[in-house]
Amino acid sequence: MDFFAEQARVRESTRILVLLFIAAVLAIVAAVDMLVLLVVGPWVKATHASLLTISTIAVLGLIAGCAAYRISSLSGGGKAVAEDVGGELVPPDTQDPALRQLRNVIEEVAIASGTPVPDIYLLPDEPGINAFAAGYSPSDAAICVTQGCLDNLTRDELQGVIAHEFSHVLNGDMRLNIRLMGLLFGIMALSIIGRQMTWSRGNIGIWNSEDDRNRPSAWFLVGIALMAIGSIGHFFGRLIQAAVARSRETLADASAVQFTRQTSGIAGALKKIAVLAEGSRLQVTNRHEIAHMMLGDVDHFSAWFATHPPLMARIRLLEPYFREQQLEQLKTKVQASSAKHNDDAQAAAPRELPPLQWPGQVVGAAAVAAQVAATPQAAQATEAAPNVTISSREIFTRLREAVRQPESALAISLVLATSRHAELQARQARVVANAFGDDVQSAVGEFATEVNALPPTSHMPLLSLAFPALKQLPQGRQQTLLETLDGVVSIDPQVGLDDYCLVRLLRMHLLEACKPRSAPVDGQKKLPACRDSVSLVCAVVATYGASDDAAARRAWLLAMNQAFPGAAATWQTLPLEWQAHFDRALDDLDRLMPAAKEIVIQSLLSAIRADGVVTPAESELLRVICASLHCPVPAQAGV
């Protein structure tokens, strides 16, 4: 999956959306103007031009106001969208095996993709197989699945569905989806108003006698007229959804294969949608409003208005030799398997579900725990408590459970931001105690031994797991956390790279989660305007990834030649307190247009590959840079 090509496609979708929206608005305005001339014109002395001006302004104001209201109602981001359609938050401490499996899969896909764990929602009354991702950015994303996914999909198939949704998170589709919900509400407003007027007949006291009730009223007729005009908005709304959604869903299927490295998962989910009676249909009343962001069609649509390609077409793209006749065989197997599953579920006791393993990637709680199974830090932690034998797997498992609670996640996040140097820890402890009190500082001390027993490579996954709980903290406490992080880091003017990376990510994600709509959008700057920022970022990566100055200069020159071919380049010496300069450089590069960001990322890859070795420092830096530029870590990066 080429993220930057996807960004170009999203911009093309946006242009199509704008053109269709303008066409819808013009058609609605023209229809209302004609109605005003026919109904009001003969009875009013004003000129036709004046009437048309008033009606046009009124319609435009209504559409704009309704669209703005709807977008504002979804300003909470992914959480607001999920709750708007009846989604129920999956608690972090759920004991339901199916929900624990869902949470486990989502957490591991998030870690593998280098994004914070999203909020997890369930549509419990929906038997169809469907899912969606919503939000303005990965920091406020929510993934919502139907009960049908849990009841009918295997682990691999659920993994494929979740990977499909994560492609929307990474590709920036979610912001477009929320905007589209607002625009659709605006152009369908007249239809909604007309429907309410016709339904309210007889309940608003506008008739004077029983005879009046038996005759069509002006109110009722106006409602019918508005519904007829609103059908224009409905027509264009469905066209907009279809135009924006179809190609994205096909590409998301391909992305799911890339993420999971096998086709059976997402293909199996699509096949089950095809053979089950419920398919992917939804029952929620506002299902058409979210049709463009779902995994499958929420209802029966004609070919013109279908938001997704035909199921068989999607399946054959994944498995070219699959034939429709095979669906009947699959249907029989699914029905038999479903009956056996129900019998087993009634007899089986709740059990711990095994974590998801992805080929070739170190992801998830169990995989990280396995990676640290023999670390010296873990051995030291065990020696410190000789009467208790604690494996590193148990340490990570305990911390994984702890970060699912807001206060524990707060304490562990502060541990991750604290220096490992003893001379700085006492000063940083005073900063934490002054901000949060002795109780939090005591918790920080209790968790410090366990966190420090894990290798640095497990810290970012732990932070990703902690993020949903941190978002549950009161806003004032989140702000205190942000200020404390700044205070802890500023104590050491030469803060360590690990600490810098963790604090940078945590601050960025928390700020975007607090104000979802303020998340950055695609920039417009061109690469030459950011040459100094590119030079500094490449210098940081080259310096921390090289074994000596000569290797660093060579890696930096490779990166600069990739970004600016043929241009003269002078070695960028890092300032003593490089972190503040690096922050400003990343913010500057985030304002680049997507094509320029691609060049920057490829240049950084050149620097990383200069010595043929990907160090942990290079891996962490690349993840932080990609997150700051709001693009995923390249699949070929090897990190």
Q: Would you mind describing this structure in some detail?
A:
- This protein has 639 residues and is an all-alpha fold.
- It has three domains: 1-347, no CATH class; 364-518, no CATH class; 527-637.
- The chain has 27 helices and four strands.
- It has helices at residues 3-39, 48-73, 78-84, 97-113, 147-152, 155-171, 173-187, 189-199, 210-213, 218-260, 264-275, 311-318, 326-347, 364-371, 376-384, 392-402, 406-417, 422-436, 438-452, 459-471, 475-490, 497-514, 531-545, 549-563, 578-589, 594-608, 616-628, and strands at residues 88-89, 119-123, 131-134, 142-146.
- Strands 1-2-4-3 form a four-stranded mixed sheet, with helices on both faces.
- Helix 1 (3-39) packs antiparallel against helix 2 (48-73), helix 18 (422-436) runs antiparallel to helix 19 and helix 23 (531-545) packs antiparallel against helix 24 (549-563).
- The longest helix has 43 residues, at 218-260.
- The radius of gyration is 28 Å and the shape is globular.
- Mean pLDDT is 78; it is low at 202-209 and 342-389.
- Keywords: Cell membrane, Hydrolase, Membrane, Metal-binding, Metalloprotease, Protease, Transmembrane, Transmembrane helix, Zinc.
- This is Zn-dependent protease.
- Residues 100-319 form the Peptidase M48 domain.
- Its cofactor is Zn(2+).
Summarize this structure as a short list of keywords or feature phrases.
639 residues; mainly alpha; 4-stranded mixed sheet; 4 strands
Summed up, the domain count is: 3
Q: Given the helix and strand composition, which structural class is it?
A: mainly alpha
Which percent bin holds the helix content?
A: 55-70%
CA-CA gap between termini: 17 Å
Number of strands: 4
